[in-house]
């Protein structure tokens, strides 16, 4: 169970990331109800207080909404979801660029290697 | 709220806890961690009113702990203390007769969740079965404080997982606090709000688990190892 979590990152953040991915991939759609805090805690094997924190943070970011007595729902504000999608993309790209720069690659090297890589991947599929 | 005010506990000449002061908030799951003989079980027994401080005070909700605390505190012992000839159902009735906060219906729900049949005799249960039954009887009490001494010890991974999930499913953190000792830290870490590290009867460190990860990028297990290696 514990193996599912990276030990150097807060668990509430790791669960946030998992939920964000589901929303960005449209697996959980605008207006969908999230599992209750208890259900989510049992599914992930995590303290319910941690899930509560995850939901509060997502609410603060405008990704989910809690409706009194009904539960927590994915926001119906599609712009907020689009912003999240852009944000996740930028984070991954920034990580990539930082790692590559640390190894001494230039921006042109990176663009070239991305093109090469995507050609290679296409090749594999055929 | 649980408070330790300069608590020392000696057994004869042996110091089990040495001048410990701290307070534990409500609604949390707190792990008490440390090597064998570091004072973990004594820490729990002092809250349970099973042993009393040599010096200092232990308070629960502002009241000094006496034997009467058992009405507020459910204590899960490390030991098996059941009559072999009892069935699970007999045991359930026995608990219900001893504790006014024991919920029979909840006990049945938890036993079902843990896949324990009430008509089985205690002696027919495997070690894992007894481990789960013990947890079920503890969780079926609506006591504000649940103390668990090594709830996972000596059990196989499937049983441990079933216990962890049972705990998450049935504890009510709006009204209950869990304090548990364990060596199975990897497995329990996602359950903990806080960890208290004991070494030689003293609190070596106390951490919020997510803060530890956020600020030191460290897991509870690693932290414990560092404390014992003296790297801190």
UniProtKB/TrEMBL annotation, chain A:
It comes from the Bacteria. Residues 9-77 form the HTH gntR-type domain. Keywords: DNA-binding, Transcription, Transcription regulation. InterPro entries: Tscrpt_reg_HTH_GntR, WH-like_DNA-bd_sf, WH_DNA-bd_sf. Pfam families: GntR. Gene3D superfamilies: Winged helix-like DNA-binding domain superfamily/Winged helix DNA-binding domain (1.10.10.10). One of its GO terms (molecular function) is DNA binding. CDD domains: WHTH_GntR (cd07377). This is HTH gntR-type domain-containing protein. The lineage of its organism: Bacteria, Bacillati, Bacillota, Bacilli, Bacillales.
Automatic annotation (TrEMBL), chain B:
Residues 2-225 form the ABC transporter domain. It holds the Pfam family ABC_tran. SMART domains: AAA (SM00382). The keyword Nucleotide-binding applies. One of its GO terms (molecular function) is ATP binding. Gene3D superfamilies: P-loop containing nucleotide triphosphate hydrolases (3.40.50.300). It comes from the Bacteria. Keywords: ATP-binding, Nucleotide-binding. PANTHER family: ABC TRANSPORTER, ATP-BINDING PROTEIN, SKFA PEPTIDE EXPORT ATP-BINDING PROTEIN SKFE. This is Putative ABC transporter ATP-binding protein. It comes from Parageobacillus caldoxylosilyticus NBRC 107762.
